[in-house]
Amino acid sequence: MANALDRIRVGSAPDSWGVWFPDDPQQVPWERFLDEVSEAGYSWIELGPYGYLPTDPAKLTDEVNRRDLKVSAGTVFTALHRGPDVWDATWEHVSQVAELTRAMGAKHLVVIPSFWRDDKTAELIEPSELTVRQWSYLTKGMERLGHEVKERFGLDIVVHPHADTHIDTEEHVERFLDSTDSGLVSLCLDTGHYAYCGGDNVKLIETYGERIGYLHLKQVDPEILADVVKNEVPFGPAVQRGVMCEPPTGVPALEPVLDAAQRLGVDLFAIVEQDMYPCPPDKPLPIAVRTRQFLRSCGA
């Protein structure tokens, strides 16, 4: 029997149902996502792209309560490395999502940096490496965001390293953590994205434990990843090739990651996210059921 992971609270997200956008004909309706995530045995969910789930707190509260679900976090996208000029537009987006997140009783806001290449066309939007000035904008901007979000909404921001963004590799993630105030900025460690970018998840948890504020559980298919890296395939097409795969068939092994997280001695959300946009509507539920059973076998 696996060790009981009593500090880990497992959930899932619209992403595991192939949902990347607020509204898209290739995605399942939100009612079906809520029905199926509950049926699969999860009790926690994220809001996903703002506008996919109902944005009226009373309606959403009613819908999640009826299915015995609770919300762990909202998600925002930011481009703070572009400097003070983007602050107002960023804050408008953030406060909208933070308002709903707080109303749902959640305590976390997952912050995803902007992509440097288009995830559909692969067109370069900007260089993949930031200048010294842009790094300063990014780190100071995230600290300001952490401060404002805590002050105004009582939420903690958790910054999500992500493929094809400027916070991706071990080097970039460590530089980001070393350059930001631990009181203002924590990390949402996505096990799949970090492995996708060549990082060692267990090492990061053991080295920067006090900065890990949230987990996304995900695995990559090493064979597909090798081809993706070799041919510089952008993230969107890589997902369509199946680079993010069903656990426990990929890397990193989740048992050691969960054990390392449990050893931190703090309560952590671990939200399953298997990127598979777009996908057939009947594909997600069986995967979600098997993944929940697998995580139970790990003690979570």
TrEMBL record:
Annotated Xylose isomerase-like TIM barrel domain residues: 34-297
GO molecular function, one term: myo-inosose-2 dehydratase activity
EC nos: 4.2.1.44
InterPro entries listed in its UniProt record: IolE/XylAMocC-like (IPR050312), Xyl_isomerase-like_sf (IPR036237), Xyl_isomerase-like_TIM-brl (IPR013022)
Transmembrane segments: none
Source domain of life: Bacteria
Keyword annotations of the record: Lyase
Name this polypeptide is given: Inosose dehydratase
Keyword Secreted: no
EC category name: lyase
